[in-house]
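G., before I forget:
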Amino acid sequence: MTPRRMFLAKALGLAAFASVWVLANRWVGDYWVPGIGQVTARFWQELLAGKLLADLWATSQLLVTGTVIGAVLGCALACVLRLSARLDAMMQPFITAIMSIPKLGLVPLLVLWFGTGWAPKVMLVALTVLFIVFSLVYAGLVTVSPRLTMTARVFGATPLQLTRHIVIPSVLPFIFTGLQVALPWAVSAALVAEYLAAKVGIGHGIEEARQLSDSVGVYYGIVLATILVLLGNGVLSIARRFAIRVQP
Amino acid sequence: MTMKRDLPETIDAGVLLQLRQLGISYGTGSGERCWILRDLDLDVRQGEFLTIMGSSGAGKSTLLNLVAQTLQPSAGQIAFRGKVVGGADMPADPGSSRQIGYVTQDDNLLPWRTVWDNVMFPLTLAGKPSASDVERARRVIDQVGLTQWTKHYPHQLSGGMRKRASLARTLAYGPPVVLMDEPFGALDAETRAQLQADLLDLWASEKKTILFVTHDINEAIALGDRIVVLSGSPGRVVLERTIDIERPRNPELIFKAPTFAGHYDAVRSCLRAASQP
Amino acid sequence: MSPRRLWIDRLALACVTLAAWEAVGRLRGAYWISSPTLVVERVWALALNGDLWFHGRFTLAEAFGGFLLGAIPGCAVAMGLRSHPFVRSAFLGVAAIGYAVPKTALVPLFILWLGVGPGAKVALVAAAIFFIVFYSTLNGVDAVDQKLLWSARVFGASEWQLLRHVVWPAVVPYVFGGLRVAVPYAIAGAIVGEIISSNRGLGYLAQFGASDFDTTLVFVSLVTVMLIVLSVSAALSQVQQRLLRWQTGSSQDPHAGTA
């Protein structure tokens, strides 16, 4: 498969998808599957009204804040557990148990405790990201080459220097992978938080549209949410390429 | 002099490194211990070029690891400049003195740094490198022939080139004691001869003490003041032979030296005997 | 570290945590944080009067239904695309976009289509599980030894026979891996769907408890879900070991099977 054929295939795939959409619209009507034109028109409308950017901004803020907090805590937890074998072995079953609780299932509890403000939403996103990043960084810390560590130690590296020059570069790919894997789930978490306790944001927009039986609005929201995920992927890819020049 | 146990009171001022009754073992899980090296005694003088040979598995690399203090001995002691730095009761603490450089068999270059950054790495660990440090690094990179490759990453280099980069890294760091574990093994004859000559120049001009592990008897005789052969299981020193060939030597033509044959035969028969079970 | 020491450590941690929880619950009032004793009591009560099973049944049914609805097509499509590279490329392009759609973004849509009943939850779970199983199976299909395929072809095997006798056995570990990963997500999906909008199920219980300021109920729901996921994961782990005894070197992720 040459790159040209692959591109053609993907283009045809998208075209097929669009055709299915159009046919579905013709077949079941606007309530179930609004036309592509209608959704596009709504996009334009919301963009001009400033609402598109406002919603995107609100959800992005939530997403980024929660992701950063979750990633930092996830890395920290992984480091702590890898530094202390005793703690690690002791905590295994507890970590597994906590990870069995779907983070989104904590929404009611968080809202009960912290109300409908900004805190429970950020916490939800953070918790979602935390365990995903933790899993990957935890696995990644094992791959830090003991030979490289030994080499650096013979050159007189202090523990701080070891962390900076050996551990972090070795683990960075795992951190990025963790972030990339976590992204769709983090966005999902942000949306759920917004369904239940928000006045702005993409999630709020979708839920509001649903309550008004505004199909076009719901579709518009879904597309907007997808765009957010794709944007996030793009940012992470660029950041990754910038930060990691070579794979160890 | 702060030596414990059975070490002579007066130390010959020229002795840099002393290994006494050195041994290392590991537990086999069934309660027994398997000794890799045992009862190993060795003195290394300041400024000496010592080549170490032995059959595979005799513990040559382990010996270097012990001297570099990346492993802790299970028995015996290591003394450096008259002070005990390693023993069964002292946890391994490599790099504390910053006096020892170690060129390992695997190049151990940091994959995420360019050749230049790799060569400068040990110097940056010790603090901001001075202009003379940078100058020395440049010179060493030229000597090993990697001038065109400083901006490349290790994965873009061949195995031999990575070896050279690893060598340059230790030489740029410039420690007085250098441990080398078969550094020229994977290189072509031309490069090897060049690097051997360069190494001898460096050693002579900077008065380094070098411990050099090799499989090649020619190389051992060409480079070393003394050859030490390890053998047995557990390993110990079975042959110490002073090479009395005059310096400066030409490694490529070492076989022409009058005493070469004697040395060669002695070492070869020792190795052969060692490899018989 | 001896196993005995380890279990003493763990037991100690569990006891300390529970004791601290109980203490805080009593001091600050069960309103905010409930307490272990209250939770256990309530679990017992709900188990006895059948409520727990009533709601649990719905959640499990939604999870299971969605799981089948997503896993079977996911696996089938991945295997079917094996010998059609062009279609595969086309499909993967669209699938990538589908994967990028946050599944919870679809919940309101499903509710719009299917109302607040179980249908929307099943659809949500199916959507999430489809991609997980699809991509896992695809990895497996790609990993099939080409030499085995080639020699079977030389013996005149048809596409169907190839799939059945060469591809499928090689792919099973990957499919299974995908299923194992998917199960907690299936249950999570059902819970999320219920939280957003439902009148039955464990997620509904949690949401109801929260809106009623009945913290104990919320904890009961969470603990029940946790126990369900843990036991299903453990059971799957056993089945996997049995089924794949001949496989060496499966990934040893201690946190596998968690959401």
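Confidence is low (pLDDT under 50) at residues 1-10 of chain B. Chain B has one domain: 47-72+93-275.

More on Monday.
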